[in-house]
Batch of 3 targets.
Target 1
Amino acid sequence: MNWLLVVGGAMVGAPLRYLTDRAVQARHDSVFPWGTFAVNVTGCLILGLLTGAATHLQLLLGTGLCGALTTYSTFSYETLRLAETGARRQAAVNVAATVVAGLGAAFAGAALARM
């Protein structure tokens, strides 16, 4: 029955990722993938909160929701696309900012959950 929790979370996370990505990207007139950046950092914050709280909702919200909400493959593709189109600086910023902000969000979420 654990798989139902994962499926339930993914059913919410996947459309939420798509809609959030489109909404964020529509507000920015740049080639930088702000939508993917936003969903990945948000997912890191949620996972940090779940980890810090040691909640039993890990399968539903962690694996299901965050697994479908965040996207390493799109992050990789968009970074490669930036580099291939000559936006190498923005590609490097995307990698650095995603790693730093994602880890920061995860640590912040864990700290918030422990408070």
Target 2
Amino acid sequence: MIRLFTALSMPWDVVETLKRRQTGLPGARWRPEEALHVTLAFYGEVTETQADDLAAELARIPSSRFDIELKGVGAFGDDHRSTTLWAGVEANERLNVLAGRCKAAAERAGIRMEKRTYRPHLTLAYLKTQTNPDRIAAWIAGHNLLHSPAIPIDRFGLYSSTLSDDGSFYQLEREYPL
């Protein structure tokens, strides 16, 4: 079984800008440079045959280049605690279409997808259970004016994800030009 997802990688200058924001919050496990991406679709554990079928279906996706912009920061979690810090992605119809096509490619490859609304974001950190909620709110307030210039998107990738005690390790398996 292989754990797969599709994502947009970020250019070096965007990664450098985000890395400068990854500080000042005790309890945050900041994501490394190579993990800073915008997920299009998460497929989970699939067989090698499904992975091959998915790769072929992704190659058939019609699309063209477009731009995205990062805007704002926030946190995901439940009513009691935040678990993830993220940078937002400004609403973008072409991004939503591409994500939908990645999901449809999985369905054609026989991969069941979770029924989940697509909320594009870039994960900056995972938060330890004991992270102080007031410090989280202060970090968000201090960085919420994030607004990147247009980021050109001319490709997306199919990545494998290996879980370890130190977090997830991502490997680019295939790249698809737009």
Target 3
Amino acid sequence: MGEIARDFYTIRLARSADVVFMAEIEIDAFVTLRQALGVEDDGRTVPRDKLEHSLYAKLLLVAVNDLDHPLAFLAATELDGAIYVVEIDVVRQWQRKGVGRRLMQTIIETAQMRGASGVTLTTDRFVPFNAPFYASLGFRVLESGEMSVGLSEILRFEIEHGADPERRVAMARWF
């Protein structure tokens, strides 16, 4: 019973009160990425207005524990007919337990129900829990000519603001 209770979580749409926990989740999760990339950066958090945009669009998902406390989130937005994943983070204590996979599966299902053309995102090409993880969910790396205008702009912005162009890629799972 202890194992079941400890690993119990539910995926649901976020509520306004959940937004205050997202920076904390993101900062905690970034420790794993920072170690994988070997960077000293403390990371950045998604601005609150972007999270609220996802919230009002019903594209902000949270994984909550048995006390309904958020332990992971996925923020998305509509972009050029697809659903674009802005951010996904899982606190370290809950990583490698399928939480991120369930969040991604839920946003894929949401995109299909909304009639979107697919789900897109940008990520690191080499970190195992980034591009290889998304590939295991049916995503593939896009060449520049395959990207929508909006997705190209996001990728360009990330590279202009410090992302390594050899590592940063756009990915999609088309329907």
